[in-house]
Design a protein that fits this description.
Layout: H1 3-23, E1 39-47, H2 52-71, E2 75-83, H3 90-102, E3 106-109, H4 113-126, E4 130-132, E5 150-152, H5 157-170, E6 175-181, H6 188-201, E7 205-212, H7 222-230, E8 240-245, H8 248-260, E9 269-272, H9 274-277, E10 295-299, H10 306-322, H11 333-350, H12 360-368, E11 371-373, E12 378-382, E13 385-386, E14 394-400, E15 403-410, E16 418-419, E17 431-432, E18 461-466, E19 476-477, H13 484-487, E20 488-489, H14 491-503, E21 511-516, H15 520-528, E22 534-540, H16 543-546, E23 549-551, E24 559-565, H17 582-605, H18 615-629, H19 641-670, H20 681-686, E25 691-693, H21 699-705, E26 714-716, H22 723-728, E27 734-738, H23 739-748, E28 753-755, E29 760-761, E30 765-770, H24 774-788, H25 791-799, H26 820-855, H27 863-876, H28 883-887, H29 908-911
Parallel strand pairs: 1-2, 1-3, 3-4, 4-5, 6-7, 6-8, 8-9, 9-10, 18-21, 18-22, 25-26, 25-27
Antiparallel strand pairs: 10-14, 11-12, 12-13, 14-15, 15-16, 16-17, 19-20, 22-30, 23-30, 24-27, 24-28, 24-29
Helix pairs in contact: 2-10, 2-11, 3-4, 5-6, 7-8, 11-12, 14-24, 14-25, 17-18, 17-19
Amino acid sequence: MSFPTHRFFYITLTSVLLILSHHGYGYNTCTAATGDHLNYTIIGAIIDPNSRKGKEEKTAMTMAVDKFNNDSNNRKLYLVLRNLTGKLHQPALAAEELIDETRVQVIVGMDTWQQAALAAEIGNQAQVPVLSLAASASIRPSSQLGSPTLIQMGSNVSEQISCISAIVHSYNWRRVIAIYEDDAYGGNAEMLTLLSEALRRVGSEMEYHLSLTPISSVVSDPREAVRQQLLKLLSTQSRVFIVLQSSIPMATHLFQEARRMDFMGKDSAWIITDSISSFLDSMDTSVIPYMEGALGIKSYYSNSSSSFLEFSTQFQKKFKSENPEEDNAHPGIHALRAYDSIAVITRALERLGSDDTISPKMLLKNILSGSFSGLSGKIKFDGGNLRNSNSLPFRIVNIVGKVYTELDFWTQDLENPFTREADEKNNGRNTTRTMNGTVIWPGYLKRVPKGWEMPTDAKPLKIGIPANTSFDHFVKVDEAQIDQEKKYTGFCIDIFREVLRILEQNYSVPYEFHPVVGTYDELVDCVYNKTYDAVVGDVTILASRSKKVEFTMPYAESGLVIVQETPEEPHKAWMFLKPFTTKMWVVTGALLVYTMFIVWVVEYRSNNPAFRGPWKSQLGTALWFTFSSLFFAHRETIRSNITRVVIVVWLFVVFVLTSSYTASLSSMLTVRRLEPNVTDVAWLKATKSVVGCDGDSFVKKYLENVSKFDRADIRNVSSEYLYPEEFQSGNISAAFLELPYAKVFINQFCKNYTATQLLNRYGGLGFAFQKGSPLAADASEAILTISENGTLKAIEDKWFPRSAECSSSDTDELSLRNFWALYLICGATSTLCLLLFFLCLLIDFNRHQASTSDANPSTDGNVWMKTVQLLHFFHNGPTEISNERLSNLSPRSTGDEWISPWLSTGTPSDATEYPEVTFDVPEPPQISLSPATTTHT
């Protein structure tokens, strides 16, 4: 190197040092040699002066240093800047150089929390405090991370993530995609973990996370590099994108390519964090329109206070002079935090005495104990972390055109996290669970975007349906049909089409059916692996399936029942005898006869005329009285009090017996009592009975794994029409069917088969969608609608009409077969009595004819005349009796009356010689009798 060159170098270096010394920037010892006894504190700043963030931080820190130096007489500050070059270990090297060579007492700056951690490792060794302006990715205090000298001045990322999860929950988005620019320090892992946990707490999940190569590492074409990364998102379904961390140049390329690739179309949503939204005020206005429709999270600070307005005026003036290439000079949150970081140091110095020697420990202690209101908010530390005491940490903005509008404020209230009020105090604020501001969404969508790749005509919804169902009333595929309405039919298909009619009132849902041959579990797996977007059919909602897919609410009840053959009901005609056992009937009859005998004995001795007369008459009266008392219809007069006591007790017994009989018979006739051939599942397993089920459903696995049936005892029945054959042939003893299938089967074969009570309940039948699909929630709401307006019931009646054979049950109406035996007994008794009557009539008629023949031998004996005479005899009785017949009438007893045993049975003339036995019987009414019917006593 030539001498002139050396001379020029030294002159330039001397000039720079003089300028820096004049403004207070540069290196010096802690105590000046001028003799003014001024204490100098050297502050090292590690920033990126080429970025907008670094430019704002530099201007703000120099303003704070100038203010302190102008106001303080005893202490002065020196600010030494070091640049961030993007190299991995550069923050540590810069910190080591500042501590060892420049002898700084405190270090400020860094863009990321990982950079600050590297610098803090060097600071810990020398006990030099390190104030980080980057947002912390950890919720633990710095002292617990092994960095007691690391002090956080930036916000905590966990608060931003909590705000993001509140927004996602507010709009019911179930799946999101996280996008971030890799910082080369691996610091995004903890941030992704925090986001995943926060989303899980609100019922959402992260479907995919996309890492973008740092813009500083992209050598050739950064836009093409971003496009290649975005191509990976074409296979995802979620359209809710969260940009967690990105530099402004990377964010510019990201949104430009996302809009070109239609990732910012309708039903998409974008959320940007403070790393981007904090620069919206200073960003190039030609870039902002690419972000139109996105929601941004901005750190809240008061921009109306006098201190801020004063700072803003000075900042803009100084920033424009130092950075004339920048169009916007308004200070952002990064400038405020940089200014407050110097203010933290100056306040710590002010608490030291003017003559106190500055030690690192004392300076760190005073910094951590500081508490004041800065430009960025309340400054107070807790374990090295800045405790954000602001009641409104963030404000939610919506980018519209080249500007943004303020929507809401996010609070730290977990139940109601949003408010429209911007006051600092939380008292009396009206908070809400959802955001209230009007949002301009991407594509100018008027409703809340679904955050999902919605079907289009070019890419319709692919729906899998079971191709071969055991009960074709639910889903039936007719390949011979060309018309889609006729090709795919069934109960489930009709419900799905009704659901779509309701959904299409808000948005279009093009779809196409794809018949799938396989089990229902395989159908669900096709949705899980994204072969199909949904499954429509008689799919049972199970816990294992719900882990893979999103089910709608059930449109039909589900459970497991046992179907079996109906047992025969022998002797049903004698059911009226079943209320009492045989012993009961015998004892009741014996008691009736015994009571009859007592009544007759007591009343006979009491000279009751109703119980007097011929013995047959007395027997009939006693029987009639006792039987009629069963129905409380007895009319005979009772004279003895003893009889009354017997009758009272007997009537009470009759009352109890008749009431019990009526109740028992009523229950037998009105309540269906099954006498199953199959006792229960345990009985089936114990007897090694073969059971049938649908092999494509979950029932077969249930019988094997839960009920522990042997696989050899389970028979696959592929069609509902094969079950009767299997039963009749004896191949199966019972069938395990889901409740909807059992209802259909019993409806068709109600006379021959019955179903037991539910063995287990399941979630019902529902439609399956991919996890996170908003169509599942909308379809559930539509199912509720058709259930409430009766459409679901109409579809059910259409596909499952009640058969005429099963329209009326035996339990509702009584038929002749229930009582034919009773009718037979009654009819037979009446017929026998009628025959007996005619027999007696013929005997009397023959006697009458015999007497008539003796009196008139010329009587015509042909059949016709005898028939006429018989009818005349039946109608008028015997009207003609000859004298010979009267003289031949015997005066002896006919056997129809009782005569004392001591009475003689001689001739009538002999009978007058004995005293006549008389009874105190009232005079009977005078009845005119014909000579033929007169008897002698």
